[in-house]
Specification:
A: about 220 residues, MetI-like fold, 9 helices, about 80% helix, about 0% strand, elongated, B: about 220 residues, mainly alpha, flat
Chain lengths: ~220, ~220
Amino acid sequence: MTFDWSVVWQHRDALMAATGTTILLTFATMAIAVPCGIMVAALRLYAWKPVRALATSYVELFRNLPLILVVYWAFYVLPIMTGLGLSPLATGLAALVLNVTAYNAETFRAGINSIRRGQVEAAMALGMSRLQALRRVVLPQALRRIMPVLASTWVSLFKDTSLVSVIAVTELAYVAMQIRAQTFRVLEMLTAMAAIYWLLGYPQAKLVDWMQRRFAVTE
Amino acid sequence: MDFDFSVITDHLSFLGSGIAITLLLSVLSGTTSLIAGFFVALFRLYGPRWLKPLVVLYIDSMRAIPVLVVLVWTFFALPIIAGVTMSPFMAALIGLTVHLAAYAAEIVRAGVESVRPGQSRAALALGMSRAQIVRRIVMPQALVRMLPAFGSLLSITIKDTAIASVIAVLELMRQSETLAGQSFQPIEVFSFAMLVYFLMLFPVTRGVDMFYRRVAHLGRS
């Protein structure tokens, strides 16, 4: 067995660019999925009943589907349904957003529900409106509790971006496997791919642990 | 747009074999990762001191690397080092177990640590051995408290088996994609796959939650 690790160094530019795409996908997805998640959570909690049911169905459906199926679905079905020719990157982003929004919505809903009703009642007894009570009493506490959950969703999302490689989005997993196919340096490229994910993901996982300690719930 | 669901009924056995493999892989990898996770957690909690950093490194690494990468590495790279050939199913089972055992270990650890240390000290004072304490005091309470987390781990397991399609395991995701490509009817095929996955996953999460509510009092102390 002889290994030739120089192949990794030779393709460093492609790998760097692909890593950039992976990070970009993570940021872009979260940037869209947080406001969308808040909106869906609000619909689930306060909207007109049929809308509430619709929001609940959406959340339950996407939390109970494998992401890779959603990615394939977006790739094959979105162009037919919308008539748009989306790029693989946009398609992958759409699939990730659909998935993460459902998780975020559930997180926000649970966070808001975790604040005891008595607090809202007390705030209203002091003369606050319902909206004021939500904004000034519930959300500041809920957000604190939500932070660690959002952080671990972030790490999952970072890892899940690898799944859009199946529709040829040129992120890290796809590019590494392309180079593997061209150079036949299977072990070297796959190990390099794992190493890059590890280098990026390990600090994030540690950060989540820290946040869970830092934002531990005490009432 | 009109839909023609005969593509599903015409290929029921093709899709059915995919469903069977998905279920088989889910049950097998769920079981193996649970057992492996238990041992990993016990090593982390009670093992020799030199082993602990290694166990922590393994767990945190698995939390940092995507399943896809673990599966692809196990299927394509591991045989080169180990000099063995593996079927895709075997590789998926090994890859999923290695990945999910880390999560299972974290659940077990959290469950064990949720039992107040005062109870172990009290048991020690009563003259119980370490093994007795784990078996008779800690685990009976911890196991019940781990249930909801194991429920979501099981649903993650089922979802992760879909990623095994990338290394050509002929499970539901793979069969659906093949059929969608050949029949040019992706909407019907993927809708069917979504329905099947939802029907597999939804009862798992709900069922475990319901079961937990019935036994939750056993975990209180």
